[in-house]
Design goal:
alpha+beta; 5-stranded antiparallel beta sheet; 4 helices; elongated
């Protein structure tokens, strides 16, 4: 039996690893958050709005800044409502496309379209997961990191990046991500009433000015 040459073995090994990578990229990962029943989602969204109303109230000089804590269910409920509102608007106006990353974020031609998103908080980490359609295939992207604020703007330092079930070193995407965040700086501006944000003990903490 003729022995295979080393370059042939390397070629087959490379092909096999490429196939595995493609399978992992297209594989649906474990969700970062579980679906919320509509009735509970309504209550959670109302709770979120009450907390936002609280932080928007004028603060007497004699009182310390208010601090509100938002859990992942409350935030996901609001995101789901925003997605439904945007989708309904698209259907009514006849605009094609999927739900963008925010209600007022247009999707430019040629850009991957965000179809779904959810968030979760784990300790001091924020973890988000969204679905983009690339080449007719749904690809799940998971991003986690430290959420904070500086000089009135939100900041994000990644600690985890996954495409499908494939882990990507954050060193490969950190520079591009920070560049993208810089380009979207206006969207990262905190509301006038908010002094700072952070994730702590599995909750998003917003501190009033």
């Amino acid at each position: 039996m003729k022995k295979w040459k080393l370059d042939r073995i390397i070629s087959l090994a490379t092909l096999a690893s490429s196939i595995i990578a493609i399978v992992l990229v297209l594989k649906k990962p474990s969700p970062v958050a579980q679906p919320i029943p509509p009735a509970i989602a309504k209550v959670k969204a109302e709770s979120f709005q009450e907390k936002i109303d609280q932080i928007e109230q004028p603060r007497p000089a004699s009182q310390p800044p208010a601090e509100v804590r938002v859990n992942a269910e409350e935030l996901n409920a609001v995101l789901a409502q925003a997605a439904q509102t945007t989708a309904s608007s698209m259907l009514q106006t006849g605009v094609p496309g999927s739900v963008p990353s925010s209600a007022d974020a247009p999707v430019a031609p040629g850009q991957p379209e965000v179809k779904d998103y959810q968030v979760n908080f784990d300790g001091d980490l924020a973890r988000g997961q969204f679905v983009v359609e690339i080449g007719g295939k749904d690809v799940y992207v998971t991003l986690a990191g430290h959420l904070g604020s500086k000089d009135g703007y939100a900041t994000f330092d990644p600690t985890e990046f996954k495409v499908g079930d494939l882990d990507i070193p954050t060193s490969l995407i950190s520079g591009a991500l920070q560049k993208r965040l810089a380009e979207e700086r206006d969207r990262l501006k905190l509301p006038n009433e908010v002094e700072s944000i952070k994730v702590e003990n599995g909750e998003l903490v917003m501190t009033q000015k």
